[in-house]
Amino acid sequence: MNSQLFLQATWLAAPVIAAGLIHIAVIKAGAFPSLARIPLDRGRTFRGRRIFGENKSLRGVIVMPAAAIGCTLLQAALASRFEWARDLSFVDFHRVSPIFWGALLGVGYVVGELPNSFLKRQLDIPAGASGLGAKGAFFWFLDQVDSLIGILLLLCLVRTPSLQIVLTMFGLTLVIHPAISLLMCTIKLKTRIG
Which of 70, 71, 92 has its CA nearest to residue 80? Predict the structure, then answer.
């Protein structure tokens, strides 16, 4: 992998990574508790099981896109001043609104997690767990990449990423996501890495 490709993929991922860290800080601080108490599934069930569960709340749907938008506005400001930032940017911010781009990244992150949450609730796998054996390995992997899949699908609305970018993003995700999970375990927001 060449260094330019790695830097481009990292720059593309940066708003989502930063938004995720901001979301962790919001959770840790207990900010917006009224939004945290509103689950996306509104308590509804399918086959007697919650659709997404308590952990998927309105707070995440608002915080992730808002934080990603803030980060893409910063990237756009840097791209307007510095050639290195323009070279690393996946989109031309003169043609694509940084607000729209950030919203796309943040919404892709949130939407990407929902099918995984639904499957786990239907299989009686608790939030934050993966299960055992082959099923556990599958869900551990899916926990790492579900948001990335959502983001990549929504990116195609603006620009389809190359296979090289996609593979690099998967590699980055398989390193960064467990590292952020470790951080969450350290500050007692999670009980396991993954």
Answer: 92
- Please give the Cα distance from 126 to 26 (Å, whole number): 23
Q: Among residues 7, 9, 22, 187, which one has the least CA distance to residue 106?
A: 22
**92: exposed, middle or buried (Cβ count in 10 Å: 0-12, 13-18, 19+):** exposed
Q: Which residues touch 126 (CB under 8 Å, ≥6 apart)?
A: 120
- Residues 122, 52: contact at Cβ < 8 Å? no
How far is it, in rounded angstroms, from Cα 157 to Cα 32?
A: 31
For the chain, the structural domain boundaries read 10-186
Q: Supply angle C-alpha 120, 121, 123, rounded to 5.
A: 65
| Helix (H) / strand (E) containing 87 | helix 83-88
pTM listed for this prediction = 0.89
| 63-81 confidence digits (pLDDT tens) | 999 999 999 999 999 999 9
Place of tokens 């796998």: 125
Spatial distance between the Cα atoms of 147 and 82, rounded to a whole number of angstroms: 30
